[in-house]
Amino acid sequence: MHKVVRCHEYGSPDVLRVDTVPTRKPGPGEIRVRLHACAVNFPDILSCAGTYQDKPKFPFSPGRESAGQIIDCADDITEFIPGDRVMLWCASDHDGYAEEVTLPAKCAFPMPKSMNYVEAAGFMLVYGTAWHGLVDCGRLNSGEVVAVHGAAGGVGMAAVQVAKALGAKVIASAGNDDKLDIVASQGADYLINYNKDNTRQRMKEITNGRGVDIVFDTVGGDLMKSSISAIAFEGRILIVGFTSGEHIKAPTNIILVKWASLIAVRFGQFSRKYADRTQSNHNKLLKLYDEGKLNPYVGKTYPLNRAADALKALQRREITGKVILTT
Ligand SMILES: NC(=O)c1ccc[n+]([C@@H]2O[C@H](COP(=O)([O-])OP(=O)(O)OC[C@H]3O[C@@H](n4cnc5c(N)ncnc54)[C@H](OP(=O)(O)O)[C@@H]3O)[C@@H](O)[C@H]2O)c1
Question: Given this model, what pLDDT does residue 93 score?
Fold first, then answer.
């Protein structure tokens, strides 16, 4: 038997329950993993609330990624052996917040030797989204100016680091100065406090009126409006998330005149449809990690049985970087 944190109904994070469930032996193509750390992401809050695009059947565990050590492999598994340390990308299909999980080996990726479980648990989604957004969708070129909105969050901080590693000048925006100090320590070149500063004007000033080449927006609402009016000619605006809860009607006339693009980023969908390209992106990210160019920033950890508190802290905007559950 082992513990798993699950939703049995939709609602606030308080609906999460710690269940004790039977352990399952791996079937063909599967591995069993003892989890040491499980990542919490903003979409987990939406899954609990029943407002996320994917709606798994009840009861489900809202976590999407974790890290641990393999304790059993089916006879047909050749790529792993018990004892291997792996990071898991389970999307919404397998228990994400749990002490252990049995799942297809294709969900597991070897951990670099120098990475610990807490860093590994929260690596794949945020860096995968950052890379897919900036490179596949945004076609980032070295030397371009990238504005990352919501830069103190998990995905935002990863986007700052990936953009810097790829040679961009980075403007990072967040909602308070303490968070911005931390974002600056992660490599951002220019800072904007969107609760105090005029974001549109600052993006224009920083680029001497030219505008930003790429916007990586995890917040939406008014920031998206400012981004569209501060985008450079041929700029790319990446729609990543709506933590503000606000969606805008895009002024398509400005987008047309600027010859700009408004591009949807959907890492989960991309990883399901293009497993090979996702693996290739992941390998490039691990290379950057090995070179010391990516620095997973974990703001806080909670024990697994306090998953609801971790989600509520994220909801209250108390976390900078990642929040991780430990078993
Ligand atoms: N498109 C994709 O493929 C993809 C993949 C993963 C995640 N996402 C989306 O990306 C967004 C960020 O995810 P995440 O896991 O990085 O979240 P996170 O760690 O909670 O960061 C979100 C940031 O949004 C800012 N924010 C602004 N208004 C907010 C509000 N009303 N409530 C909460 N936060 C607010 C917060 O910073 P301040 O306090 O500084 O304002 C916070 O740092 C989410 O919308 C998520 O669904 C998209």
Answer: 81
221 in any annotated domain? yes
58 vs 62: CA distance, rounded Å: 10
Ligand 1 lining (C-beta closer than 6 Å): 41-43, 125, 129, 150, 152-156, 174-176, 179, 218-219, 240-245, 265-268, 314, 317
Instruction: Give pTM, 2 decimals.
Output: 0.97
Q: Could you give the CA distance from residue 325 to residue 303 in angstroms, rounded to a whole number?
A: 5
Q: What's the gap in Å between 27 CA and the centre of ligand 1?
A: 37
Contact 186, 160 (CB under 8 A): yes
**How many structural domains does the chain have?**
2
pLDDT in tens, 265-303: 999 999 989 999 999 999 999 999 999 999 999 999 999
From atom 42 of ligand 1, which residue's Cα is the shortest distance away? Answer: 153
Question: DSSP string covering 34-82, please?
Answer: EEEEEEE-HHHHHHHHT-SS--PPSSB----EEEEEEEEE-TT--S--T
Say how far apart CA 141 and CA 51 lie, in whole Å. Answer: 35
Range of the domain at 93: 2-123+296-326
Q: What is the CATH number of the domain that holds 322?
A: 3.90.180.10
Q: Where a domain ends, among 268, 284, 311?
A: 268
Distance 18 CA to ligand 1 centre (A): 26
Q: Which of 42, 181, 237, 311 to mutate to test the pocket of ligand 1 (most atoms within 8 A of CB)?
A: 42
Provide the CATH number for the domain around residue 245: 3.40.50.720
Q: Which atom of ligand 1 lies at the shortest distance from residue 266's CA?
A: 3
Preceding peptide of 56 cis, ω within 30°: no
